[in-house]
Specification:
Elements lengths: L1 H22 L2 E3 L6 H6 L6 E5 L1 E2 L3 E3 L5 E4 L4 E3 L8 E4 L4 E9 L3 E6 L3 E10 L4 E5 L4 E10 L4 E5 L4 E11 L4 E5 L4 E12 L3 E5 L4 E4 L4 E6 L6 E3 L4 E5 L2 E5 L6 E4 L3 E5 L3 E5 L6 E4 L3 E6 L1 H4 L5 E6 L6 E3 L4 E6 L1 E6 L4 E5 L4 E5 L2 E3 L3 E5 L4 E5 L2 E2 L2 E3 L4 E4 L9
Parallel strand pairs: 1-2, 2-5, 3-6, 4-7, 5-8, 6-8, 7-9, 8-10, 9-11, 10-12, 11-13, 12-14, 13-15, 14-16, 15-17, 16-18, 16-19, 17-20, 18-21, 19-22, 20-23, 21-24, 22-25, 23-26, 24-27, 25-28, 26-29, 27-30, 28-31, 29-32, 30-33, 31-34, 32-35, 33-36, 34-37, 35-38, 36-39
């Protein structure tokens, strides 16, 4: 009888504990409630909703929690010397529907953290809007990073980011998006835009950027220097995706220092109205265009369009290479210097392409080589140190 009474009392108290715990999962910062204090006491599986402007630094170190904003919810660091929101070592963290601002870094994922973020804005941070490092991973959708002191997004130290939906990096003082130190980015269905930064997107230090399907789009528009650069042994690969780079102060695409860009499976890329070259490749770098419909399932052509650039449509330097295979084409017209320039021992395989209405359409010089099949070329010239073959009916030097 006594044991039954104790059991009844325990069940009675347990029944009242649930609403008390539920009350702790909602914070209103406009009423002076402390968001970080509640976050620190979350357990795996808990969800917390907050409202208002929370003027504090927040640390998430618990696996499996969800932090959601309601209305115009904001986490704002009280000092630009501290990160606004840190996720340290926690797995399966979900963040949604709020703004992160005024910190050293806005959102900082570290220590192998894994995060899913949606409808997040990172703005006005001293260094980076979103920093992912220390073998961490981020899946992010429908988000924005703008007006940060250096980078919109910085992914470092063997970390990864997956973009879905729409993501915009705008008006950041250095990079819109930067990948460094063997990190990776994948674009699924949706559009990643890096506009009006000093440099739009940089893929560097043996990192990789992947457009995974025809629903993936990357835009780099009106950046002060380069739209999209791949450097230091890194690689960009598009499997049917679309890339547009336009209105940048220097090159649309810049591939340098033993790096590469592969466009496959009917990918569409265009580079126009840039201040220098549409595609600039140097220092033993490589650009490949190809599509085998039996493998890719896409019956169309992989296409690279280059026009109205202040320099060359394509500029190959320092033993770099342009290779084309199967169903691929380049359309280069109305660039202010060359349609395609091949110099410094570089080489090119050109097929199915139209290179016309440039001041000089195709020029090979200083030990360069060209292989031509099925093209429409307005003018072609090469010096005595270069070699060409194919169906042009010309030999070097041309006169």
């Amino acid at each position: 009888m006594k044991k039954r009474g104790i059991l009844t009392l325990v069940l009675f108290l347990a029944g009242f504990s649930l609403p008390l715990l539920a009350d702790k999962k909602s914070v209103d910062c406009s009423k002076g409630q402390n968001l970080n204090a509640v976050v620190e006491n979350l357990s795996p599986g808990d969800s917390l909703t907050f409202t208002g402007v929370c003027n504090q630094n927040v640390l998430i170190s618990t696996t499996g929690v969800t932090l959601s904003g309601k209305g115009t919810a904001v986490i704002s660091s009280p000092a630009p010397s501290s990160d606004t929101l840190t996720i340290s070592g926690a797995k399966r963290v979900v963040l949604q529907n709020f703004t992160i601002q005024n910190g050293l870094n806005g959102m900082h994922a570290t220590g192998g953290a894994s995060i899913t973020a949606q409808n997040i804005t990172a703005q006005n941070n001293a260094v980076t809007g979103i920093l992912v490092e220390g073998s961490s991973s981020l899946y992010i959708a429908d988000a924005t990073s703008l007006n940060n002191g250096m980078d919109g997004v910085d992914v470092e130290n063997t970390s990864s980011v997956i973009f879905n939906g729409n993501f915009t990096a705008r008006n950041n003082a250095v990079f819109g998006i930067n990948l460094g130190t063997t990190s990776s980015a994948t674009v699924n269905a949706g559009t990643v835009s890096a506009n009006q930064n000093a440099l739009g997107i940089q893929v560097s230090i043996t990192s990789s950027w992947f457009l995974s399907n025809p629903g993936a789009t990357v835009d780099t528009l009106n950046n002060a220097t380069v739209g999209l650069t791949v450097v230091s042994g890194s690689h960009l690969f598009s499997f049917g995706g679309s890339i547009v780079t336009s209105g940048n102060g220097l090159d649309g695409f810049d591939i340098a220092s033993r790096s590469g860009m592969d466009l496959d499976a009917g990918s569409q890329a265009s580079s126009f109205n840039n201040g220098r070259d549409g595609v600039h490749a140097e220092e033993l770098s490589m650009v490949n265009l190809f599509n085998n419909p039996q493998f890719s399932g896409n019956p169309g052509f992989t296409s690279l369009q280059l026009y109205n650039n202040a320099g060359d449509g394509v500029n190959l330097l320092n033993n770099s290479q342009l290779h084309m295979f199967d169903q691929a084409q380049i359309l280069a017209h109305d660039n202010q210097m060359l349609g395609i320039g091949v110099d410094d021992g570089s080489s090119m395989t050109l097929l199915n392409s139209t290179i016309q209405t440039n001041p000089a359409d195709v020029v090979l010089s200083f030990g360069s080589r060209g292989d031509f099949t099925g093209n429409k070329i307005g003018t072609l010239s090469c010096d005595a140190s270069s070699l060409i073959r194919g169906d042009t009916g010309k030999t070097c030097p041309t006169h």
